[in-house]
Amino acid sequence: MPVGKIIKSLSGFYYVLCEGEVYQCRGRGNFRKKKVTPLVGDLVEFKAENKKEGYILSIENRKNELVRPPISNVDQALIVTSAVHPNFNALLLDRFLVLVEEKRIEPFIVISKVDQLDEQQMEVMESYKTLYEKIGYPVILSAVDDTEAMDQIQSHLAGRTTVIAGQSGVGKSSLLNSIDPRLSIDTDEISESLGRGKHTTRHVELYEIAEGLVADTPGFSSLEFGELELDQLPECFPEFVEVQNDCKFRGCLHHKEPKCAVKSAVENGEISDQRYEHYLQFLNEIQNRKPRY
């Protein structure tokens, strides 16, 4: 049986890409009995008499799975944040990074709209670029019609399945359209009254872009740490992981514990005090999370 990848799910049909051709398939009834839902990104075994009448027979094991957006087997996340309109928000960026790290998905960061900055503002963005690159995250500063930035982004996309994430209005769909104008993904002007964009992306679909597959999705519609446990949070900060073996206590949460290597690294400037402050906010949020039954 051929194996393909689901690239779109719509109205009960699954569109499976196999050797450059797309087959419209339905899921077998036993998926419903087992309460298994095929996801965009799934590798599936299928049978098709023609391109319009196919059936998914089995789903291969997933290496990861996101709930919102519902997608599986993601290699990396392109996190788009804007320099202005809406203004750069380091706390929100760190929240996205934690959510991505939790799923063991590699992030890379694009800061858009840098052409709208003055010299002083540009220096601030450059300093953030340096900070996140030191942690190990690739960062691309992007402007309108910036072919060099687009080339860099495309090189990251090649051969990988990428989910695109970021708050509304930062230019996610515009970015994809500029990489591949054939897409013509709907984009709306930012709602000035709200200071954020309208949701224009309504279903999950993998587009073949720059020799890779990119999900243009409604983004991470939930930015809450619903599944993340306290002891997992430090693992989502790579710069903490580098030094935490030197903490006096195993399972150190880097908060009130004595002889904490992370707190020492913050004090001597090896770890960003802003990143550490964000970590403490997230820690507090998880500690005060209402239990779900």
From TrEMBL:
Chain residues that bind Zn(2+): 247, 252, 254, 260
Residues holding GTP: 112-115, 166-174
Domain EngC GTPase: 72-221
Keywords linked to the UniProt accession: Cytoplasm, GTP-binding, Hydrolase, Metal-binding, Nucleotide-binding, Ribosome biogenesis, RNA-binding, rRNA-binding, Zinc
InterPro entries cross-referenced by the UniProt entry: G_CP_dom (IPR030378), NA-bd_OB-fold (IPR012340), P-loop_NTPase (IPR027417), Ribosome_biogen_GTPase_RsgA (IPR004881), RsgA_GTPase_dom (IPR010914), RsgA_N (IPR031944)
Gene Ontology CC: cytoplasm
Domain (CP-type G): residue spans on this chain: 63-223
Enzyme class name: hydrolase
CDD domains documented for this protein: S1_YloQ_GTPase, YjeQ_EngC
Single GO BP term: ribosomal small subunit biogenesis
PANTHER family on file: SMALL RIBOSOMAL SUBUNIT BIOGENESIS GTPASE RSGA, SMALL RIBOSOMAL SUBUNIT BIOGENESIS GTPASE RSGA 1, MITOCHONDRIAL-RELATED
Family listed: Belongs to the TRAFAC class YlqF/YawG GTPase family. RsgA subfamily.
Name this protein carries in UniProt: Small ribosomal subunit biogenesis GTPase RsgA
